[in-house]
Design brief:
Subcellular location: Membrane
Order of helices and strands: HHHHHHHHHHHHH
Number of strands: 0
Largest sheet: none
Keywords: Membrane, Phosphate transport, Transmembrane, Transmembrane helix, Transport
Oligomer: single chain
GO cellular component, one term: membrane
Number of helices: 13
Number of domains: 1
Radius of gyration: 21 Å
Strand content: under 5%
GO molecular function: phosphate transmembrane transporter activity
Distance between the termini: 65 Å
Protein name: Phosphate transporter
Length: 395
């Protein structure tokens, strides 16, 4: 006797949303590997391939340590009482597409922009397109976009730069009189521990954002309630996705952070990584979906200031521009994707947007192959990374 298996259109949309969310998690991994390992690779504390493998493993472990950030993402952006079912699924899907495309675009340019803000921007844009401005939780006591996202985005890099600058100044005062060779050797060993802590913190903070998105999709489908615990399979799949992405290595961004902003010595690397880890873990404890990219970049900038080293302000300027554009442009893409899906309607609309995502991702990957950067050349001098026709840095 034959049995016919019927899969509803709404279930297919849910599956596409989950796959897209895990794809975003994967891009988050390779986009943000530099946050933990750029300085260790630049100073020679870890070989490039060893660094990304270690970072991937610790991201995997870190993803299981907390779900506070996931709760903020799942319940703190969209007013769940205003939308449900397939309508909410399409909003989440369009937001994810906006986040992925912005992640890939900034990776292509070698710019360490925020994966977190790309995701939030995409979700906010698609929500506004679908529900209007009132559909977004902008501020509600200690909750909302302004308190949980915008305020940390402004404060994190500034605080990180100040703390790292002070830490670097103290480090060089302490080791004054010790030979440079002995100092560098000791701090390279220390960097292995501090870089590992950043990777653990990154998994604790960033993997949860995708968990929150999948949780939101499951609520929309009706398979769980908003107050349920995070399913273990969601935690495990997000942990694996971000770990695999991290292992792939975002070499273009690693070069920018490790070589492009400040020439880093091992004492600076330890100060930068320790500062970033402390701030990221603190934010995860309080459920703040912090931008690990901005925190790590601020820390690296601070080490240059603390040492009195040359800072390439033109590179920093391009990063800041990318940070400022991330939320609105990812939001614009998310809104456009929602509009396309809505005009076509139903499952066909979602499939068309999914096809656009695949085409865009493939196009940017093919463009990156024209000037490949990998573990073999990530530590080349920065001057050679700035050709007349830009590929790993924005004009």
């Amino acid at each position: 006797m034959q049995h016919t298996v019927f899969v509803s259109a709404e279930l297919l949309v849910l599956l596409i949303v989950i796959v897209t969310a895990l794809a975003f998690d994967f891009t988050n991994g390779f986009h943000d590997t530099a946050n933990a390992m750029a300085t260790s690779i630049a100073t020679g504390a870890l070989k490039p391939r060893v660094a990304v493998a270690l970072s991937g493993l610790l991201n995997l472990i870190g993803a299981f340590l907390s779900v506070s950030v996931a709760a903020t993402v799942a319940k703190g952006i969209v007013k769940l009482n205003d939308v449900s079912g397939q309508d909410l699924l399409v909003i989440v899907f369009a937001g994810l597409v906006g986040g992925i495309l912005w992640n890939l675009f900034t990776w292509l340019l070698g710019l360490p922009s925020s994966s977190s803000h790309a995701l939030f921007g995409g979700l906010i844009g698609s929500t506004i397109a679908a529900l209007g401005w009132s559909g977004v939780i902008w501020a509600s006591g200690n909750e909302g976009v302004l308190v949980k996202i915008v305020l940390p985005a402004v404060l994190a890099p500034v605080i990180a730069a100040l703390v790292a600058a002070i830490a670097t100044w103290l480090v060089y005062r302490i080791v004054r009189g010790v030979s440079t060779d002995k100092t560098n050797e000791g701090f390279r060993w220390g960097q292995i521990g501090s870089a590992s802590l950043v990777s653990l913190a990154h998994g604790t903070n960033d993997a949860q954002k995708t968990m929150g998105v999948i949780f939101l999709a499951l609520v929309a489908y009706g398979s769980i309630n908003p107050n349920d615990h995070m399913p273990l399979w969601v935690m495990a799949s997000c942990a694996v996705a971000i770990a695999l992405g991290t292992y792939l290595g975002g070499w273009r961004i690693i070069r920018t952070l490790g070589k492009g902003l400040v020439e880093i010595d091992p004492p600076q690397g330890l100060a930068a990584e320790s500062t970033a880890a402390a701030i990221i873990l603190t934010s995860a404890h309080f459920g703040l979906p912090l931008s690990t990219t901005q925190t790590a970049t601020g820390s690296i900038l601070g080490t240059g200031l603390g040492k009195g080293a040359e800072v390439r302000w033109s590179v920093m300027g391009r990063m800041v521009i990318a940070w400022m554009l991330t939320l609105p442009l990812a939001g614009l893409v998310g809104a456009l994707c929602w509009w396309i899906a809505d005009v076509i309607g139903g499952l066909p609309g979602v499939l068309v947007v999914f096809a656009i995502l695949i085409a865009g991702a493939l196009g940017m990957w093919l463009q990156s192959r024209r000037d490949p950067i990998g573990s073999h050349n990530v530590n080349d001098e920065w001057a050679s990374a700035e050709p007349s026709e830009p590929s790993d840095s924005a004009k």
